[in-house]
């Protein structure tokens, strides 16, 4: 209440930081962030490293991000060692690392025991990714110094993590001279061998394909074309499509479009994400549709809708002309047509399979699917009519957290999807193909709402009236 009245004083917060109730201490830490210049409060925060309540320490990890002192940095370091096994604690610490990434990185890598522990490896590699994305010379130097003194296998791993988000111009400087250049050559060489080795575990091969995204595109273009061949496992093809989207080269569109006829529906969703990553590849995609290489019937209706409201006026204009005759049916007409499903007897077992195929990527019910979209546990209380309406007309009423956003990075790359996590330093975007990507705020050039639900319109193109009745039966009986 005092905070809301702008009457809160630092001494009041300081007193409550040692309160006997842990939730009071937790709340006091949140309010302490605005008193970062007060040395007494800063000192009290550092003392709270030993707080017996894990939630209070969790909040402490976030709140330390508002303090820039060496003591605060040491406190984050100590929290990493004390609570680093907890994934959420690692997340909180990394969120507060933004002003001290280089120093924390040096502290973590100097400690051999922490570096060798599972939580230490995860923390250090995640920090290396952040450093690469931020692209600050001093922080990059911290990683390169570590690479110089660490064993080769650890050095290669750190190089891969840092360079996975490092802009291409900075990447070139690192790969030209010194030990880092040699390690980089070894990294790419090993990735080439692993990616094509059918005897290797699929997860290893996928990781190797992602690593090849660090190489010069001209050197790996043919490799990526071969990864998209139908004889390759779906995981390798998917990894190749995801990685191609990281290259800022117009030729990637040709590689993807050439492979399009042989891609499965699931892979085409990922291929669309790759082609939508940059304006040049979107234009190539539209060219392929005009030339008949890709048929309009092969495109997800939600993609057509997105193109027609795209930020780039040239792309939007082309899409409006190209898809003029392929608009989705008016939602009112579709909902009316599917009222007959309400009179059909549904099969819940069949409905469960329909749910798995069409809904489980974003919704979870009865132990099936992922909880990304709206909670469905109480949907049966709303009745079958409500289910038909919301399945077929998802844009009628959309909660803000389920709206699709358009994100453009400072490298010109485009992402579209729903924001599933947000911190002081980053956004996590869930894309239509089911993958997620975290983008640092410092790398975001533009963030804009499309006004559309993440749940696409057009499900009527995938299920008939009887299948809708089956889906309703499953949702009405699921727990």
Structural write-up:
With 479 residues, the chain is an alpha+beta fold. It has helices at 10-16, 22-32, 39-47, 54-63, 70-83, 87-95, 101-110, 112-116, 118-134, 137-149, 152-163, 168-174, 178-196, 202-211, 217-227, 234-244, 251-259, 265-275, 279-291, 301-307, 313-322, 331-337, 348-358, 384-392, 465-477, and strands at 364-365, 368-369, 403-409, 414-422, 426-430, 436-440, 444-453. It has a five-stranded antiparallel beta sheet. A two-stranded antiparallel ribbon has the order 1-2. Helix 2 runs parallel beside helix 4 and helix 19 (279-291) packs parallel to helix 21 (313-322). The two termini are 41 Å apart. 38% of the residues are buried. The model has no long low-confidence stretch (mean pLDDT 87).
Name the helicity range: 55-70%
| Cα gyration radius (Å) | 25 Å
Q: What's the overall average pLDDT, rounded?
A: 87
Globally, the shape reads: globular
Give the end-to-end Cα distance, rounded to a whole number of Å.
41 Å
Give the biggest sheet: 5 strands, antiparallel
Total DSSP helices: 25
- Our estimate of the beta-strand percent is 5-15%
In terms of structural class, how would the helical and strand content be classed?
alpha+beta
Trace the largest sheet across and list its strands: 6-5-4-3-7
Return residue spans where pLDDT drops below 50 for at least 5 consecutive residues: none
What's the total count of β strands? 7
